Model the fold of this input.
Amino acid sequence: MSQKPDSVTLEHARQHHVGRLLHRAARAYNILALDKLHERGHTTLSLAHTNLLPYLDIGGTRIVTLAERAGMTKQAAGQLVTELEKGGYVQRHPDPDDGRATRVQFTAAGWHYLLDAQAIKQEIEAEYRAALGQPLWEELNTALRRLVGEAPPL
Done:
């Protein structure tokens, strides 16, 4: 039986590992992107909204599918969709494939958000590339793709 670590050692191990670094990097990216969205007028959006919107397909998506993709309950996804509807970003429509289901689709304001979000992603990547330098930026992308099992871009 191994010896029980002291609380200081255990707390240090909990806080200092690659998972925590990846989480902190992702959170910093998301907060920076949200700040830039707010600067562009999307002031009603929160991190919860911006964590759901990437799972909404351009042609629309059922709430149950959004919930599954985002790793949340259908009720939580439904609440976020209601808030996004109030903000004018999405609308609910009957699903043409299943009359009992509802499909969530982007509105004109939602499309404006999509265009702004794409421009912001490019801005942030340029900032990161400048901070790291091109070789390290490429190594970082290659390493992250390998970790998540994604093929390199064509």
Observations:
- The longest strand covers residues 98-106.
- The beta strands are 61-62, 90-95, 98-106.
- Residues 67 and 74 are 5 Å apart (CA to CA).
